[in-house]
Amino acid sequence: MWIKICGIRDPDTACMVADLGATALGLNFYERSPRSIDLAAARQIQTAIGSREVTLVGLFVNHSLADVITTCHELSLNMIQLHGEETPEFLAELVQQIPELVIIKAIRTSEPDLAFLKSYLETCDQVGKRPDHILLDAYSPIAYGGTGHLAPWKMIREEYQYLDWPSLILAGGLTPENVAEAISNVQPFGVDTASGVEDQPGVKNPSRVKAFIKQAKSEENPSLNPL
């Protein structure tokens, strides 16, 4: 099971989360988020984790193409998460500049089905670039993720085209108390949390991080390969 803990803000937390077994650490560059960091803080985190086998994922929300490319080059990022209204054309332009870049596209869903995602992926096919992974999050009119709101598990399980669409990462209100149930219900490729393991925005609770990772791994599907 691919497990990302998002909103890492300092080196000590990064090392703690990595040592507890997370697959990936989310670095949030969205300035309006309480979990946001700048390039200097990201470099400190990168230095601190050293040779630990954990992936740094840069999170962007409606940033310019130039900003995303610059940050990726500055930090040698090979995986990013686009959590805003980035178009399929934006994805295509991005991989023209950084061909090896792995892209997670977040979709915040409140609809009764996944018609928007289906249409989005059809446009991606037309412009020649699909995201490598889809992250489904709960919709909020006031925030781009990290709200603690639950994603609609039942609808996702019924509507997601697992064989034809990019691999699914589930987010939205996941906690140590519900992540095993979420995985059992939705059968995602991976899971992602921020607020679900925090004492307050941006402050991770080691006990909750440990419990989240343990519970997520308890429902791991052995047929799924890691990213």
TrEMBL record:
Q: Identify the metabolic or biological route this protein is part of.
A: Amino-acid biosynthesis; L-tryptophan biosynthesis; L-tryptophan from chorismate: step 3/5
The record's listing under Pfam families reads:
PRAI
Q: Does the keyword Oxidoreductase apply?
A: no
Q: Could you tell me which SUPFAM superfamilies the record lists for this protein?
A: Ribulose-phoshate binding barrel
Catalytic activity field: N-(5-phospho-beta-D-ribosyl)anthranilate = 1-(2-carboxyphenylamino)-1-deoxy-D-ribulose 5-phosphate
Q: Which Enzyme Commission number(s) are listed?
A: 5.3.1.24
N-(5'phosphoribosyl) anthranilate isomerase (PRAI) domain segment(s): 3-214
InterPro entries noted in UniProt: Aldolase_TIM, PRAI_dom, RibuloseP-bd_barrel, TrpF_fam
Keyword set, alphabetical order: Amino-acid biosynthesis, Aromatic amino acid biosynthesis, Isomerase, Tryptophan biosynthesis
- Cross-referenced PANTHER family, in alphabetical order? N-(5'-PHOSPHORIBOSYL)ANTHRANILATE ISOMERASE (PTHR42894:SF1)
What does the similarity note say? Answer: Belongs to the TrpF family.
What protein is this chain from?
A: N-(5'-phosphoribosyl)anthranilate isomerase
Q: Which organism is it from?
A: Gimesia maris
Gene behind this protein: trpF
